[in-house]
Amino acid sequence: MRVHVFGNSPSPAVATYGIRQAVCDHNSDIDCDDVCDYVKKSFYVDDGLVSKAHENELISLIKRTQARLQDGGVIRLHKIVSNSTAVLSSFPPSDLAKNITEIDFSSETPCIQKSLGLSWNVVKDVFSFQVSTDKKPYTKRGLLSTINGLFDPLGYVAPVILGGRLIMRKAIQDNNLGWDDPLPENLERMDRLAKISYASKEAIAAVVYIRIYESTGNSHIGFVLGKSRLAPTHGHTVPRLELCAAVVATELAAFVQKYLDIPSQSTYFYTDSQVVLGYINNEARRFYVYVANRVDRILKLSSRNQWNFVPTERNPADHGTRPVSTINMKDCKWLTGIESGLQRNIENQHVQFKLVEPEEDVEVRPVVKVNKIEVRKANLGGHRFERFSSWNRLVLAISCLKRIANKYHKNVQTDTRNNVEFKKAAEIMILKEAQRESYSKEIDLLKTDKSVARDSSLVKLSPILDSNDLLRVGGRIRNARLDTGKKIPIIIPGKHHIAMLLVRHFHQLISHQGRHLTEGAVRSAGYWITSGKRLISRVIHNCVRCRKLRRPTEHQKMADLPICRLTPSPPFTYVGVDTFGPWSIVSRRTRGGLSNSNRNI
């Protein structure tokens, strides 16, 4: 197929693909040269725009592109226009645009060429905008035709067009006016527009500049792209509009970075709103949906350290929020930018912008504090048991409390239990409280028919729960004809205070016998105290009566010997003799009887 249909919807795409395929048939971008890049990035359908630092580079690129298009697709690249005489003279007149050969660069006569819808004055190398001189009726239809007659895709004269768009919006708001009805007198003159829409609530604007550095170190700022949009008539505050302008700025920057091959790290953003800077740098508070979505969009296209503050009087984008007359547009900061206002302040590189009055900002969600209240069933608490030094006294005190409580409880009928039954109930209550404090996890697992954890200290005892929800030692002798306490004794935590009270109680019952008998008494009563041997030994060691009874036999210490016993002297010097008697004693037997004699001692 050698003929392409003109005017169909896919025609521009097909034409673009054909031109690119004619000059570049490489499978990878690595193999592409400058001709491929020129056709891919600088062509729009059949128009190509390119700028080079040196004339020879431009001439070589255009000639090689002509040859590549001719060889690859028999496509002729012509209608060449340039603001350089050397470039134009390098091509034959047949390849140049019409009337381009008659250009005199030394004269002031303009030479206007259309380039992608824009009027390019080749002699002065500037874009110009021409407004139709045909008079149109001052109606909605005529006003819309005049506004759309200015084609400005890059936003050069956006502040000028803004004035007409504001008038158009005010005219549309009047539903009583038809499209061909004359507009009221208060909208007849453009010079009144500055008074009507001076406030920044009327529009938002963003503008992109590029800074070019020379080898000498000098730099120049040039206008690249600008955008001005009408703000909604209601429902938007100034901080919201400033945030929307920041979103537009990031979108324009991403667009320019893509088509000019500028890395995103070398881009800086400026705004005169500290509220917006606080939104962007915020990491502590949450926003409502409107602000949150736009901040998220900004941070996807930029980073927090790229945003800076610029005063309003030095912000060139501020001129895009209010109309500017055509007379003042030449020297407007919208086109020239501000050198000092766009320089990055090195001292403020690490400035952290905080939220401005977050407690009063309606866009910031209030800090919600959640207090968790856990309601638990009231218990006696094992710490109260430490006030007692005797098991009997503790049981007696709890039984009295239960009796008194039952008397004043409305839902409980008259209790006919005797003292023994109350004491038994008190013992169960005390034991359950001690077990709940030490083995609450094990009890909860057993209540849900689950086994205790492997890291539990009771896992070797195979604990079970009885009808009173008391932990007891499991085992294989539950079918034996023994008392329940002997078969499955109640588990008592050895570090709890009631364990010591029980040991003391049974130690006194067996008249302060030794460790083995005390341990047997505790077991016979139906209790299994964890680490019981160590506890029993400690109780016996601290028992005052046991210490007295088991004290070793004491011996009288003899006094010192007298001096006479220790001084050397002749025999019988210090000898004393005591005599008493006589005593009648049997000395011998005779035939007639016994013979007695007297003796003195």
Would you give an account of this structure?
Strands 3-4-5 form a three-stranded antiparallel sheet, with no helix packed on it. A two-stranded antiparallel ribbon has the order 1-2. A two-stranded antiparallel ribbon has the order 6-7. The protein has 20 helices and 15 strands. Residues 189-199 and 344-348 have low confidence and may be disordered. α2 (34-42) packs across α3 and α8 packs parallel to α10. The protein folds into three domains: 11-77, no CATH class; 140-348, no CATH class; 398-549, no CATH class. A hairpin with a 2-residue loop joins β3 (112-115) and β4 (118-121). With 601 residues, it is an alpha+beta fold.
Number of domains: 3
The biggest sheet, with number of strands, parallel, antiparallel or mixed sense and barrel status, is: 3 strands, antiparallel
In DSSP terms, counting alpha (H) and pi (I) runs of 4 or more, how many helices?
A: 20
Let me know the average pLDDT.
83
Shape: elongated
* Coarse structural class: alpha+beta
Helix-residue proportion: 25-40%
Rg from alpha-carbon coordinates: 55 Å
C-alpha termini separation: 167 Å
E-strand count: 15
Q: Strand portion, in percent?
A: 5-15%
Strand order of the largest sheet: 3-4-5
Oligomer: single chain
* Residue windows where pLDDT falls under 50 for at least 5 positions: 189-199, 344-348
Summarize the structure.
The chain is built from 20 helices and 15 strands.
What structural keywords apply?
single chain; alpha+beta; elongated; 3 domains; three-stranded antiparallel sheet
